[in-house]
Write a structure and sequence with these properties.
Shape: globular
Number of strands: 29
CATH superfamily of the largest domain: Glycosidases
CATH architecture of the largest domain: Alpha-Beta Barrel
Helix content: 10-25%
Structural class: alpha/beta
CATH class of the largest domain: Alpha Beta
Strand order of the largest sheet: 8-7-6-5-4-13-12-9
CATH topology of the largest domain: TIM Barrel
Radius of gyration: 27 Å
Largest sheet: 8 strands, parallel
Bound molecules: beta-L-fucopyranose
Number of helices: 12
Strand content: 25-35%
Length: 619
Amino acid sequence: MMKRITLLLALFYVSCTATHQLHTQHLKFDENATADEKIAMAAHLTPSAEQLRWQELELTAFIHFGINTFTNNEWGDGRDSAELFNPTELDCEQWVRTLKEGGFKMVILTAKHHDGFCLWPTATTEYSVKNSPWREGKGDVVGELRKACSKYGLKFGIYLSPWDRNAECYGDSPAYNKLFIAQLTELLSNYGEVHEVWFDGACAEGANGKRQEYDWKAIIECIRHLQPHAVTAIMGCDVRWVGNEGGLGRETEWSVTPLAPGSYVDKAAENRRLGIEEMSKDLGSRELIARANELYWYPSEVDVSIRPGWFYHKEQDDEVRSLANLVDIYYRSVGCNSVLLLNIPPDRRGLIHEVDAERIKEFGDYITKTFAHNYVVNGNKPWHAEAGEQKELKVKSNKIVNTILLQEDITQGQRVEEFSVELYNNGRWYHVARGTTIGYKRLLHISDYKAERIRVSINKSRGRANIKCIGLYYAESLEEQNRDVILSDIDPTCWSVEIETMRAAIDGNRATTWSSDSLTALIVDMGTTHNITGFTYAPTTEEDLSGTIYRYNFYVSSDGINWLKCDTNGEFSNIMHNPIPYFVHFGKSYTARYFKLEPLEEIDGKTMTSISEIGILTR
Ligand code: FUL
């Protein structure tokens, strides 16, 4: 009998240690693991040292700069001359000073975007700064930015686009992988420490029609070898794309997920079996984990631009996000267990534009001021909470508060599944917030309260939760100041269309959309003749983007019979990830009474068309 008890105790001990032992970044379940055992193990999965350091940065910045800055494009096709790259006052120190003032801790530069133009004098291609007039071909943007980062103490990251529309060998997989690794090797060997390497997921067929198979294993090995402390993002393995480019983190955001990172090609089938991808709403629920075989610590990064586009466009100078909007993004990224990667694209001078610079400073000042004093007494004292437990703390007297901050000690894993918060004032408790995940940081806006005490309840947790901080702050209220975007220089009220339902595309109302279940051209008669310099296309504002046009032709006509195809690059680049209004400038003017937008390819290859608004530019 005694022997049996000892044996049972030993088995119990073994299973407890298996489920209660901390794992770093990745774990595999035993074939027979039960759903409860899986959850216990999920609670003990922790970030790598590099992932933890990255998460603690909270605010990181993107710099999209390159040939597109000079062609006014979002995606270049790799054929624009290197001679176009000629910033007149490039000053990386100005970028870094601006970002530092805004509270940003790292900057990631587009060393090469999809057009293939390299911002450093690489030996791998002629398509680089060395063949531009800038600094007589002797310049190196990567080098200048690296120096500025060292001078001002910012961390440094690089974006190297796997998709390359210039490289002739793109699509000839072994040859391009060799070129790509050579580029990576230059960047990771010659510029000191690199803290993040960012590989975009966007990619298409090579010019030769062949699809590029990336050798992710070799690419990641190259990084691990040359920069062992860098995190790799998106098509890497340490940092996950949040799933949109609009600055929207998830309400429930688990850093522990069965979603296998982008570079684990052999795991793509497993992601499909589980029915998950970066854009999925649920990436970490109990139900999902119960069906999984492996888990990853794979935290989310929210990448979003301060302007509608990723690159600088003069016509967007009035559309820089307002302070209120940026602060909202901060709450929905850093405040939703993510890192914010905010893009601030330098202009053709090679400077962060005055409007953006001012906004960044306002943003930095606002965040610093808001979070300068935690009004909770002893809010930083660790609290180990079992599900169902509550903690009550005093609030410094006479303080009005409207922001709650909660943090878990993620070095022990992410565990909280449901929490609620009450505040005590004038003899009664007010229920002010409830939420799901906390993770590294959770911020919640509430109305203004004069609170005497705070009570936090951990209502559901994956084992004992480790609360690191409970905070209350006061955030000044902000007015939304963004102006409406003007989509047409000509008033469309007198325009006519062939079919009445098409009017939704020219009614000046972004909330209405014309859609068709085929690739249908939209023809508009403007009634009188105009000198047209461009047009705008606004995709639907609905969540379902079906029908959104990716490739197109645009024509003008003076009689509605004979059509002239206008000079455009024929694609709304990146519209599938960033469904904003697109402004297409011809670079010349056409005289016309009629215009026609002919869709050639929908974003997902569907035979559908949808247009929320189309407008005409004359300036
Ligand atoms: C996207 C790219 O296609 C955009 O141009 C931009 O670089 C953004 C960060 O990622 O997928």
